[in-house]
Amino acid sequence: MSWDERQRAMLAEMGYRLPAVSAAAEAVEVAEAEPEPIEVAAPPPPVMRVAAAPSVQPSNFSGLDLAALREAVAGCRACGLCEQRRNAVFGAGALQQAQWLVVTDPPDEADDASGEAMSADAGRLLDRMLSAAGQRRGGDDATAFVTPIVKCRPPRGRPPQPAELVACEAVLARQAELLRPRLVLAMGLQAARRLTGLAEPLGKLRGRVHSWRDVPVVVTYHPAYLLRSPADKAGAWDDLCLARMTSKA
């Protein structure tokens, strides 16, 4: 088989090493090649005009208290993530004013199954991290509220799409209004980028204080990442110290 110069260049770009072919052999192949049949394009099918599907608008969560907001999220259909979820993950922790609002990356499979935020090994590490910083999300005297940046697990764990983030930010904004946190702790790249509005790597977002809705934001690693990369726990401790100092300022 022969290739023209353009085809050879494309194959080379893909890393395919072409066998050496003499000019004479290539000339014979070209001479013996049958002419390609002429294809006649079929007429295009008739165009059927279908009305565009209406865009889904975020629900109005203003005016709801925390219990009503939780119920609204359980039945929320403001974006396509509701089609495949098992449970919406509203979050848990302080039931009135929270010192820290901890916003994590989207729910994982365990969270989706249980309906609880950070319910597996990552959740146990999170509780230890909060305790070390003087915070807790459990009990009657809870001081932190933990919730994901979107309340339903995206398919196959993909990052949430912009429309999904917009729909869920209405919930997060209402949670912040009700809990009045002194600090937001963003755990994980997706939560950090959404809350800071910056598309930088997590390492560049850490170590400084950002702002979301006039609330200071500190960025750190997601506990699930720290379970895979324990060497970064020292950096996470630095982030918690920054968060603790910022929330007391």
From TrEMBL:
State the UniProt keywords alphabetically: 4Fe-4S, DNA damage, DNA repair, Hydrolase, Iron, Iron-sulfur, Metal-binding, Nucleotidyltransferase, Transferase
A single MF term (Gene Ontology): DNA-directed DNA polymerase activity
Which InterPro entries would you find in this protein's record?
UDG_Type-4/5, Ura-DNA_glyco_family4, Uracil-DNA_glycosylase-like, Uracil-DNA_glycosylase-like_sf
Q: Return the EC number.
A: 3.2.2.27
Catalytic activity reads: Hydrolyzes single-stranded DNA or mismatched double-stranded DNA and polynucleotides, releasing free uracil
Could you say which protein family the record assigns here? Answer: Belongs to the uracil-DNA glycosylase (UDG) superfamily. Type 4 (UDGa) family.
**Which NCBIfam families does the UniProt entry name for this protein?**
UDG_fam4
The keyword Chaperone belongs to this UniProt entry's keyword annotation = no
Q: Which residues form the Uracil-DNA glycosylase-like domain?
A: 90-241
* Name used for this protein in its record: Type-4 uracil-DNA glycosylase
What domain of life is recorded for the organism?
Answer: Bacteria
Q: Does the keyword Lipid metabolism apply?
A: no
